[in-house]
Design goal:
The chain is α+β, with helices and mostly antiparallel strands and 169 residues long. It has four helices and twelve strands; from the N terminus they run αβααβββββββαββββ. The longest helix is centred in the N-terminal third of the chain and has 24 residues.
Length: 169
């Protein structure tokens, strides 16, 4: 019975902390399907001030998308100092055409990550070029993409989901 009470108490504290994080860090971006809240790791020594200093995902990983040439879609993330994106989390799915070719993704930095072990990450800026067949594309490209990153302050964001609609002129 004592073990059950401990589990209930732990779960209650966890829910309370999660609700507080969610309220403090909610990213109100309309393009984000998931929440902008953060997942806290199991490090009991983290201070409340550190939690409050972590940016919302759309600020930490500012994304721009545009057409660079008549047949290249560009995805550009400006990554704030002290934050990084995981290479393995990048995923792109075109939803309205079958015009996208293989993305050209630069080589990132190999690092030992506290959460995922040996990983490739991107700091400061990530520019991805995705060629497309202009004969198949039509007037726009609809793209679902997801990515995940962390703050060096021991916080990892949940997977970010975006739906983009880029007009092709």
């Amino acid at each position: 019975m004592f073990t059950t009470l401990k589990k209930i108490l732990f779960f209650t504290i966890f829910l309370s902390a999660s609700a507080n994080l969610y309220a403090q860090l909610l990213d109100n971006s309309t393009s984000t399907i998931g929440t902008g809240s953060l997942l806290i790791n199991n490090n009991p020594g983290l201070a409340t001030s550190a939690i409050q200093s972590v940016l919302p995902a759309d600020s930490a990983f500012a994304l721009n998308a545009y057409i660079e040439t008549p047949n290249t879609l560009v995805l550009l993330w400006d990554i704030e100092e002290g934050y990084y994106l995981y290479r393995k989390s990048l995923n792109f799915v075109e939803t309205n055409n079958d015009s996208l070719e293989n993305p050209v993704i630069p080589t990132g930095i190999q690092t030992e990550d506290e959460f995922f072990g040996e990983v490739e990450v991107f700091y400061q800026r990530l520019l991805i070029r995705i060629p497309f067949d202009s004969n198949k594309v039509g007037n726009d490209i609809s793209l679902q993409l997801n990515y995940q990153g962390c703050a060096e302050a021991n916080y990892c964001y949940p997977m970010q989901y975006k739906e983009l609609n880029i007009e092709v002129i």
